[in-house]
Structure formats: C-alpha cells, structure tokens
Amino acid sequence: MAEPAGKPRITVMAYSKDKFLSKKIETLEEALSIGDFEVIWINIEGKISMETLKKTLALPDSILRMLLRSSGKPRVVMFPDYLVLLLHQVYEIKGGLKRERIGILLRENLLITIQEVQGDVFNSVRESIRKGESFFRKKGVGYLLFALLEAIVENYVFIIERISSKMEELEARIISGEDGKILHRVHGIRREILFMRRTVFPLLEAFRRLEIESSEFFDEEVLPLFGQLHDHVLEVLEILEGQRDMANSLVELYYSTISMKTNDIIRILTVVSTIFIPLTFITGLYGMNFHYMPELYWRYGYPAVLLTMLAIAVGMLVYFRKKGWL
Length: 326
Hints:
By secondary structure, this protein is α+β, with helices and mostly antiparallel strands. The chain has 10 helices and 7 strands. 57% of the residues lie in helices and 16% in strands. Helix 7 packs antiparallel against helix 9. The chain is rod-shaped.
C-alpha cells in the first residue's frame, strides 16, 4: 500500500451496456463533465480538501466532514437525493493490521469513493468492468456499490484466513516445545481478532439498513444483495468468534506445555533425590567415625560400600523404569 501523497489521485470509470471509459483525471470538475454513461465511478485516493468537494458536489459541510473524517464507526446515512456510507478497509502491515477509512457517496448514477491513501481492494471490480462482464454492464450503480462492498468484506475474509494460518503455525510450535516469544505472538493474534471484530461488527446494522431502508435508491433486484452481504458479515463474525476461542485455547495449551515441562523437571529431580536418600544414609552411617565399627578396618570395606551404593542406585533406576516414572 502506497504512502499518502500530497496531491490526491483521481480516477474515473464510466460504463454503459455498449461503451466504457477509464482514465486518470486532474480535477473533479473533469469527472463530472463526462458524457452519457449509465454508471460513473469516481475514486479519490489521498487527501482532498473539503473546499474542493463542496465546490464541485454542492454538499452540506456536515456531510463533507463525515466523508473526510478519519475516525468513526461504519454507518449508512440517507438523504432525499444521495446516500453516504462510511466503512473501513483493512491491510496487513509489519507488526499487525491497519484500518483505513473509506467514504462512499451515491447520487443518481454517480458513485464516489474517497480513500485516505492510495491503494485499495477494488482491483477485482475494476477488472470485471474492463472485461465487460455482463452482470456489470447490464446493471446500474446499485450493483457497482454492492460489488465494492463485497470486495471489502472478501478482503476481511482473506485477512481472517491469514490469522487462522498464523494460529495453526503457533499451535504446531507450542506442541513441538518451542518457547521464544510464543505467548507474545498469541496475544498479538488475539489483538488482531479483536481489531477485526470491532471493524466488522458495525457492518451488520449498515447492511441491514441498506436492505430495508434504501428502496428509493435501488431496484428490487439489488436490495436482496445487501441482505446477502449482511449474512456474509454474520458468517465472518462467527469465524472471528471461533478464532477468539482458538486463541484462548492456544494460551491454555501454552501454559499446559509449560506445566508439563515443569512436572517433568520435578519428576526427574524427585527421582534423583530419592536415589540419593539411601546413599546419603550409608555415607552418613559410615561417617560417624565410631572406633569399634568393624568395617572400618576391613581391607575391602571401601569398595564393598561403593558397590553396594551402586547396586542400590541401579536397582532403584530399574524399579522406576518399570513403574514408568522415567
């Protein structure tokens, strides 16, 4: 994803059943002067001033501030002549995820998308329009809006699949006994899941409103598609809930493996200590230095005691092995 530029990048795609136009333009006035097309899509990438939008679109300041604001939850705002949607695109960056606000304005056959930085998830939509696929060329601006929203949701699914892959990798590393920064990475994934859930959840209300309350903007063929988006978002949220449970299970698995390692260490130390108890008794017994201990003056007393201690140690090791303690 490119870095924010000083001057916004403005592109326009216009199409009808039998004609198509795609080009980069310098000003919004140039885009609005495009001729007879059934659908006109203007995409603005980068910072654009509210004065420029107000001059060309003649919108109230409150709506322009809403479109350009970098914070706020996703929502749908409907007016008699136009419809405004606010939602987020999500990108993977080094160290986590980044959220980018995107504003969408729909008025008659005109659809304007305003993004904070250059780069988006709409390339599949652009390619479908360029190829002249029938479901785009024969349908109006409502279907284009649906396609853009679907591309955003599908990108959420892609991000979520990557999170699942990370968790599977971490699970394998935990089971294999690797330590490192496993717990830190698990907590990082949990933050990503929570981040995605906060991003996706408000779309339920937004897409439901599109399906139920936007009949004056879309025909009966398009409205059910927003219901499909609502159901898709529900599925995404269910996946996120499952991932959150799995992340919690990874934490439990990590602590379980740590506990097992600790138990193994304690078991080994206990066995060693147990073996040394009789050996310590023997050495303590012969360390009392009583004068009339007969073994003290026996020529083979020392090696006999050593062999006895060795036999005791080996015997205990064999016994522990048979019991499965080693």
